[in-house]
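ok so i was messing around last nite and threw this chain in just to see what happens. nothing serious, just curious
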Amino acid sequence: MRYADDAIIHCNSKQQAQQILKALHTRMEYCGLELHSEKTKLVYCKDFRRKQKYPIVKFDFLGYSFQPRKTKSRKTGKLFLGYDCAISISSRKSIADEMGALKIETLPFKRIVGVAHFLNPKIRGWINYYGKFRKSELNKVFQLLRKRLVRWARMRYKRYKTRLNKACEWLERIRKQYPTLFRHWEVGFSC
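result:
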């Protein structure tokens, strides 16, 4: 069995999109291939110029979710409806699953520096890939990482074992004293 890579095809109208989709089905059949029935769909890119109602206005592609989003104008500073991409929900879940598999809370390092050295290559990869568009959407990922780092501190240091607030304060002090310790702190995430 053979597979073709994913693709997005932009069209000027629904009619043009339907014609291209039909031609694509024909071409794939000719090559002995088929389009993935669940992933192949017509999506209306709704924004402030395109205001019609269609059932599908969102799609995921290569870990990003493309959909209508409020966007701030660079010229006027006012909000408008744009069609933009950001990390998808499934990608955030995948990162959360990866954090779970890493078992951050039980990492054997004696100091937070060891944890940072261990995690920074992963964090750098997440930021480099998913931070290209709407970087702020990664806040949810780093809030989860913060919770896991607090759990690590509570398991590592007896004085924080039953004191959640004190463990949170400790991590915040570390972030202020060593703002480049974790890669996400270094690039401006406060989580």
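not much to say yet. The mean pLDDT is 93.
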